[in-house]
Design a protein that fits this description.
- The strands form two sheets. The chain has an eight-stranded mixed beta sheet. The chain has a two-stranded antiparallel ribbon with strand order 9-10.
- It is of the alpha+beta class.
- Strand 7 and strand 8 form a beta hairpin.
- It has one domain: 2,3-Dihydroxybiphenyl 1,2-Dioxygenase, domain 1, CATH 3.10.180.10.
- The chain is built from two helices and ten strands.
- 14% of the residues lie in helices and 33% in strands.
């Protein structure tokens, strides 16, 4: 698996009002704001500093071994399909979610129980397969990760199709 960069860090509000955290990160640390898609059932706010992001998550942590609403960090990978294949070969459980129309999220946990999110690095040129581009520019081929028989397990959260 080739990690290309850190994408974002997510911090849970832990029942602190979201607007208090937004003000802290904006006013005290000087982080900029970034548009955030609507994520049903998960209030939040995104900040940006350089090409890195801080995601504030207003939903309570799930308290599960792979906790997508708890504290976590996200890395971009060169080839998400290859990363999933590698996770499966290593016997590492993962959860899959789709945000919006084309952002595939893969969630794993490290041996210490820290949640890590993987996303396709959309800043890289799309790799060509034998029949042309594997994915549409600016989006990941969501269908390629929804293959029966994979170790993927749904988290049961209705926010994660």
């Amino acid at each position: 698996m080739k990690v290309t960069r850190f994408h974002h860090v997510s911090v849970n509000t832990n029942q602190t009002p979201l607007e208090d955290l937004v003000a802290f990160y904006r006013d005290v640390l000087g982080l900029g704001d970034k548009p955030r898609p609507d994520i049903p059932g998960v209030p939040g706010h995104w900040h940006v500093v350089g090409d890195q992001e801080l995601h504030l998550v207003g939903a309570p942590p799930q308290g599960t071994p792979i906790d997508s609403t708890g504290h976590h960090y996200c890395v971009s990978v060169a080839d998400l399909d290859a990363a999933v294949t590698e996770l499966e070969a290593l016997g590492i459980d993962y959860q899959r979610a789709v945000q919006g129309e084309n952002t595939v999220q893969i969630w794993i946990s490290d041996p210490a129980g820290n949640t890590i999110e993987l996303q396709q690095d959309t800043g890289l040129a799309w790799r060509l397969g034998p029949d042309g581009p594997r994915s549409a520019p600016g989006g990941h081929d969501v269908g390629s990760l929804n293959v029966p028989g994979r170790r993927h397990r749904d988290c049961g959260d209705p926010r994660h199709p």
